[in-house]
Amino acid sequence: MTRRTDRDASRARGFTLLEVILSLMIFSLLTLMVYSAFFIGHRAVLKGERDADQNQRMRVAEDVLGREVRSATLYFARHDDEVFPYFLGRADGMTFVSAAPQARGGTGLAVVTYRVADGQLILEERVGFTPQALLRPPASAHVERAVLLGGFTAIRFEYLAHDDAGTGWQQAWDGRDEEALPQAVRVTVEGLPFFGHPWIREIPLMTVAYGIGNDETREPDEDEDAANANDDSDSDSESDDE
Asked: What is the distance between the alpha carbons of residues 76 and 109, in angstroms, rounded to a whole number?
């Protein structure tokens, strides 16, 4: 009697095949749920980091672009017999002289060029230039390059003409023809991953806003420079006589 009771008790402590299969299925479902939650959370974190990185890049691009365009300088280029304000703009880029470059700690003047290549907005800066070498820089000229922005599908630059022109925003700007700087530059960026609409910024040129870069401003010719130099010399002489 005792032996049978012990045998029955040992059988009661075991698991049937059905119970084992059900246990494995439940364990597998729980594991799948935990892994799915971890995977979704990890993917959300990575997406958030990418969006934050893209957003930070956009902020940096906006800051650099805005500062350099606003600080565009009325700098006259000399090419053959031409003297004209140096600002050349196209729909896919522009070049001008800025007083707020990235180089040299943001001081001094630099030739700034924005151009699109391989779906990226490239910033180029060149210091140590002369008016005669703006259109045709020497082969030995040192140029600093950096990728300012990427991840977009299209980018477009437009240039605001002066009020008396009545043409509004233009697709191109040539200082040789306009004989002035544009009033503002409009930048339109499409296809940014974290924007559901085009990113548009209109950046005024402070030089023009203060009435310096209009068509009434011109480069003094050599005779005027000589006359001013003589006037300064006469003033110095009079001061010495006194």
From this structure: 13
